[in-house]
Design brief:
The chain is mainly beta. It is 0% helix and 53% strand. The protein contains no helices and 11 strands. A hairpin with a 4-residue loop joins strand 9 (93-100) and strand 10 (105-107).
Length: 117
């Protein structure tokens, strides 16, 4: 089965940067060519889409992070990354990794990102 583990969250000042990582493991990992994505849930709000990337490297971003965040993947390491630059307090949230194929939709446990003003 596929397991996703996020890391890299923490506390950062506004204007700073963080890089999140998501490692996939199990018998159904990147070999099944999943679309990888990042979602986040700010305090008191619903979970929202942040970014996604296909096997071919085609990326999509929400308008709120476009130009500041970059999603990449390394299939050899079964890992997807989210480079977050120019962070602001509105980026404070629990960030979740997602792997989606026609056969499954898997989620990680989440990692906390807190941006202070």
């Amino acid at each position: 089965q596929v397991q996703l583990v996020e890391s890299g969250g923490g506390l950062v000042q506004a204007g700073g940067s963080l890089r999140l990582s998501c490692v996939a493991s199990g018998s159904r990992s990147f070999a099944s060519s999943p679309v990888m994505g990042w979602y986040r849930q700010p305090p008191g709000k619903q979970r929202e889409f942040v970014a996604s990337i296909t096997r071919d490297g085609s990326a999509n971003y929400s308008d709120s992070v476009k130009g500041r965040f970059t999603i990449t993947r390394d299939d050899a390491k079964n890992t997807v990354y989210l480079q977050m630059n120019s962070l602001n307090p509105d980026d404070t949230a629990v960030y979740y990794c997602n792997a989606k194929t026609i056969f499954y939709n898997a989620w990680g446990q989440g990692t906390q990102v807190t941006v202070s003003s």
